[in-house]
Amino acid sequence: MQSKYNPKEFEDRIYEKWLSEKRFSAHVNPNKKPYTIVLPPPNITGQLHMGHALDQTLQDVLIRWKRMQGFEALWLPGTDHASIATEVRVLKTIEEAEGITKDQLGREEFLKRAWAWRDEYGRIIVNQMQKLGSSCDWDKERFTMDEGCNHAVTEVFVRLYEKGLIYRGNRLINWCPDCKTTLSDAEVEHEEKPGAFWHVKYPIVDGEGYLEIATTRPETMVADTAVAVNPNDERYKHLIGKFCKLPLFDRELPIIGDDYVEMDFGTGALKVTPAHDPNDFEIGLRHNLEQINGMNDDATMNEVAGKYEGMDRFACRKAIVKDLEAEGYLVMTKEHPHNVGTCYRCSTVIEPRVSDQWFVKMAPLAGPAIDVVNNGEMRIIPDRFTKVYMNWLENIRDWCISRQLWWGHRIPAYYCQTCPEIVVAKEMPDVCPSCGSSHFKQDDDVLDTWFSSALWPFSTLGWPEKTPELNYFYPTNVLVTGYDIIFFWVIRMVFSGLDAMGEKPFDDVFIHGLVRDAHGKKMSKSLGNGVDPLDIIDQYGADALRFMLATGNSPGNDLKFQIERVESSRNFANKLWNASRFVIMGLEEGQYELDGSERLTLADEWILSRLDTMITEITQALDKYELGIAANKIYEFTWNEYCDWYIELAKKRLYGEDAVAKQTVQKVLVKVLRDILKLLHPFMPFITEEIWGFIPHAEDALVTSKWPEADEKYQNPTAERQMNSIMEAIRNLRNVRAEMDVVPSRKAKCMILASDASVGELLINQGEYLMTLASCSEVVLVTNNKEVPEDAVSAVIQGAELYLPLDDLIDFEKEMDRLQKEKAKLEKEVERVVSKLNNQGFVAKAPAHLLDEEREKEAKYRELLGTVDARIQVISLKLK
RNA sequence: GCGAGAUUAACUCAGAGGUAGAGUACUUCCUUGACGUGGAAGGAGUCGCGGGUUCGAAUCCCCCAUCUCGCACCA
Question: Strand, helix or coil at A191?
């Protein structure tokens, strides 16, 4: 074992070993219970970022833990084609490098390039995950556009179509003029932007005056087909049925009455543009209004716009406002910031547009997805996200799934070239069922990228085939993902799983937050505040990064990335490394198993008892998905109990002459270290496996070793109580010495005056602990304080006073100050306890054990106070 | 507008109906044979404000404030 902790030296080597020994492989195994996680497939758009590192660390902790608990643990990895994101990315790269546009490239060539891209980034991503230590079953790696997934996508599409849950409709959809595709509602982000209300006169035809209309988007006037007022509006109701004139255009618009119009908003009169606004679209349907499309697919104005044709929509807005003003139609302009929808991929303002698209009918699918959570079959952790989940499902609208893109699953709909028939089928039909023609053309569009990810938990296990894997591993146990894709992905997996499999896709959904930079800003390329996980691994090791991510926060909350915390995790790894080196140092060939024949010391019993408690608590925390708590417990136990106390106390026997005692302490050292390595392994897999290779063990590799189980025989409350007394004594002695500025190298005799004989006996029996850890030269019992020299400093614990005669070193004034301080502290404690015990309510209603505890405390503090007081008397005489 | 989260030590965050915790930073001391990426001792917080429930609230409930973040949006 190398003397320096150097993760670079072993992390890759260890991972290679795991791979070559097939440690992550999972198979259908009737003798074991399965535990399954499917990896949220990272997009192949680029490299993994810190958010992926967090997501994967959490999953790896769970899967490694379950693997050690004896489950057939499958973590199924893969990547997502990420239709729109990848297409945008690939096209941009090609355009920047070669100056070739999408149209110039052509569909076939583009797909060739995109596949090459996928191969490259797929490899990079796998490499990154392996660097992080992710224990996926790589033989089962999948891609959302591989053959099996394609098969599943087509199957689901056809089935849903046949059930009437997929339909083609001419509806108002979200259109991104830059990506030139539709977007689902979930893919539209709302952003508040400055805007204005323009109040415009629409003159009444065959009558006096005009209707004043307020609009935020004057350019859509070109496509107005009506003006609506509330039928109960006294100001306008007489106008219903009449017409008004569309300013700047020689068109007449019917004035209609519709409840949708709110009388007290704006002017109470609404221009209706069915082809460019969702609400107007609905009004249009109710009143049979014509839908006029005023824009091209790039959001420039089309021929409908007359003289504005060819202008960009925002340029057109300005031009129309200018013309309205010039011709006297503009009443006023009012500032009005409002939310506009933008594309989640390119941030372009989306344009609502009427178009023929494919939709999934959501209502019938949403119901079961709601039920499965309501009836407790599926849990969302933390629970608060259940509300988010429900809220979305209860207000769900139909899902627009067709995209005008090339990278993705082409829609399995075939259009007869001689009649209007559309055939939806797994393969291109031979003959048209309506006209007998054999000429078909497949739909040009591809599916929303989330359509295929929705099938991930079962498409990856072989569905629609009834494979043994599907039968064994589905439903999966837990889905681990960020709250940002609950709508996009989690919900869609749930209803897809319920529909296709008839069973939920996972038992638990474990939601985590996002990784932010040190200032709480979202990490992003454009801000340049991203931190590359590989850089951190290179500098500090994967274990340090993982530990930091796992302990950084509580479930569901965002995590700020702080390099100090990575450093502190690395320091912990270093600590473990060195402690292990210490344990290994004196070991010789042979067995170091505890067999019950050993004569254990107090410290042995204490650490074994504490370890036992830790095993229970850590396992319980993991069971509750409290990964951070579990990791903290291991950290504290390892550092503050095992290293700071047990190892220090072990040294005497280790370096001593007694071979049997030495072997006993080595056995305990090894036993505890072994379990520490196991408990820590899910969090820090590399260092623990590396150390495992150096310590005696009967099992195989740590990665597949057995998770520790608590064993009641190690529980030892007496040993814990006694050790606490000793540790308190040592701490107090150290404290006194530090306050009196006594250097550690100056040893001192320790005289014990016990008010409780058993405490005195304990301290004498374990006198060597005081000698080792509190710089005592010897520890002796005295029966009367007359035996104690006056010029001694004192430390007190319950049941005993400890005196250090330090003659020449003692400064009585200083000692007086110290004693006064201590007295004040104790008086406060007594006061607190007394007031509590004087409280009749407390005495009457508090649980008995608390009452007892408080009474014990009172006795203890009074005793300590008495001792301190006595010392003050003695010292004050000295000062005179 | 509806909903959620946050508000705890200088900083970043855990925790939790029964005397406030960690990491970092800070002060003092320590070349003790695993480790200075270390050891020891210490200072530091009326747990956002105001009410309520309770013997007891930082913890549960209500109100308010500030900051995030979702969702829905009135043209």
Answer: strand
